[in-house]
UniProtKB/TrEMBL annotation:
Its EC number is 2.1.1.22. SUPFAM superfamilies: S-adenosyl-L-methionine-dependent methyltransferases. It is an enzyme of class 2 (transferase). One of its GO terms (biological process) is methylation. Signal peptide: none annotated. It holds the Pfam family CARME. The keyword Transferase applies. This is carnosine N-methyltransferase. Belongs to the carnosine N-methyltransferase family.
Length: 493
């Protein structure tokens, strides 16, 4: 074998080893996320036991003032059982894109070798659970091609047909900071609870990868992310979330409608929705007559959105109890324990446009692909651009993937997710003011046509005594026909 041939063989072998190790690490990360879902009932039950311990410490006279409390605790357990039943059915319907049975021993080497080179499961979301960013295990994201090409990692949904569940690549970015609390015990399992309503669908026999004997020990912060997802379900798929959707999604939909007045479903404009979460905004854009693609990095989100989009048979097919996880700021027990039916629409019968899809993967890695350049007529970002390590890179990519004359519609605050990453000194976080964000956008060829501020909330309990409000920036910016996208710094007055 020639020296050149030998070098090529060594390089190919190293590349195969690298890909094998990265896939193993991705399996490990996915297993951690699944374990967080599976550990939800035990973590929630521990909360109830804590409430009971506090109640027992009361004096007899004080207990006599709260005779309904023991019954409330039992009602909480019934609500937890219903949530757990929904989660269990969701996990059973999930088809992992990776071989979950493969040996994980090789992951330790990769963890140490690449700990600083891959995205973390940094999962704080704008006011979803905590105003401070968090962290988790390392996570690989390695999509081979852009999502509209061959080898895509996406879910597709055609009118009247379920999304075909293929490959979902991604981590997650939508949860609270790890506060150092102890983890959930190994082997805590999600069971079909006897109190769960039997009308919530049929549960098949558990998949092998749901075997409790192979579940990971996870910190309680991971289970907090599951609670966070339950609240996100309300925002996107419940009638109770309509107010937030009207505040955030309606202005975007109205702007898209006015920007493309002569569209037709036969030649539908292509619209990308990065940070699509549970998929409702992307679906509403599809219903409006666009070829819509949602992009999401979080496996927590993708598992749930796939289940709702694919497996909801009717309006109100499921019931969840999203507000039971905190006794704080409740107006009444009935408010805290109120059921929320989901979904409020039937996705498969919603009148979507051909080509609707959900693509899993890191926005930068997926849409930096050359095949994406100049592909999209519109990009919609809602509570997304502050998820960046480097917001300048986000803006540059948005400019590159838009057609000349294409529009970028944005709504959201600038609560940078990787700010104040205590204990992770090498974590990159570029935190620009709104003024600087706009200057960078102008540098990359955008002209701002409309700007305003929209007051809104994010996954907030509408009946809570505490409401976190955002004065979110809303704009429509158009990519100039001959955009200047060189690396010169913008002129700062």
């Amino acid at each position: 074998m020639s020296e050149v041939g030998g070098a090529v063989a060594v390089e190919d072998g190293e590349r195969r080893r690298q890909r094998t190790l990265e896939e193993a690490l991705e399996v490990q990360s996915l297993r951690r996320i699944i374990s967080a879902y599976l550990n939800y009932p035990e973590a929630a039950e521990e909360d109830v036991r804590r409430y009971e311990r506090s109640f027992r410490k009361l004096s007899p006279a004080h207990k006599a003032l709260l005779p309904h409390y023991p019954m409330k605790f039992q009602k909480l357990r019934s609500c937890i059982a219903t949530n757990s039943y929904f989660i269990f059915n969701m996990l059973q319907a999930f088809e992992p894109p990776l071989d979950m049975s493969q040996d994980m021993d090789c992951c330790d080497d990769l963890h140490h070798e690449h700990a600083s080179g891959h995205h973390c499961l940094s999962e704080q979301r704008n006011s979803c659970c905590s105003p401070a960013p968090g962290s988790g295990a390392n996570y690989c994201s390695r999509p081979e091609e852009a999502c509209h090409g061959e080898g895509s990692h996406m879910h597709k949904m055609s009118t009247g047909e379920p999304i075909s569940e293929e490959t979902t690549i991604g981590g997650s970015h939508d949860c609270p900071v790890d506060n150092g609390r102890s983890g959930v015990n190994d082997g805590a399992t999600l069971q079909q609870e006897p109190d769960a309503p039997e009308s919530n669908g049929d549960a098949n026999a558990p998949n092998d990868w749901l075997d409790p004997s192979i579940q990971l020990h996870v910190p309680l912060v991971d289970v907090d992310k599951v609670r966070c997802i339950i609240r996100n379900i309300v925002r996107d798929w419940a009638a109770e979330g309509q107010k937030e959707r009207d505040e955030c999604y309606k202005p975007i939909l109205e702007e898209l409608d006015s920007q493309f007045p002569h569209r037709s479903k036969e030649r539908a404009p292509a619209c990308l929705v990065p940070g699509a979460g549970l998929g409702r905004l992307a679906l509403e854009i599809s219903r409006l007559g666009f070829m819509s693609q949602g992009n999401e990095f979080s496996y927590y989100m993708m598992i749930c959105s796939s289940f709702i989009l694919n497996h909801a048979e009717t309006v109100g097919d499921w019931t969840i109890y999203p507000w039971i996880h905190s006794n704080c700021n409740s107006l009444s027990d009935s408010d805290q324990l109120r059921p929320v039916p989901i979904p409020d629409i039937h996705p498969a019968s919603a009148g979507i446009t051909e080509g609707f899809s959900m693509c899993g993967g890191d926005f930068v890695e997926v849409y930096s692909d050359a095949s994406q350049e100049g592909y999209w007529d519109a990009v919609v970002t809602c509570f997304f651009i502050d998820t960046a390590h480097n917001i300048v890179e986000y803006i540059e990519i948005i400019s590159k993937i838009l057609k000349d004359g294409g529009v970028w519609i944005n709504l959201g605050p600038l609560l940078y997710h990787f700010a104040d990453m205590y204990g992770q000194e090498d974590e990159m976080s570029v935190e620009l003011s709104l003024e600087d964000v706009k200057r960078i956008a102008i540098h990359y060829g955008f002209e701002f046509e409309k700007e305003k501020t929209i007051e809104t909330t994010y996954t907030t309990n509408p009946r809570s005594m505490m409401q976190n409000h955002y004065s979110a920036a809303f704009w429509t910016a158009r990519k100039r026909l001959k955009a200047t996208t060189d690396e010169r710094q913008p002129t700062i007055p």
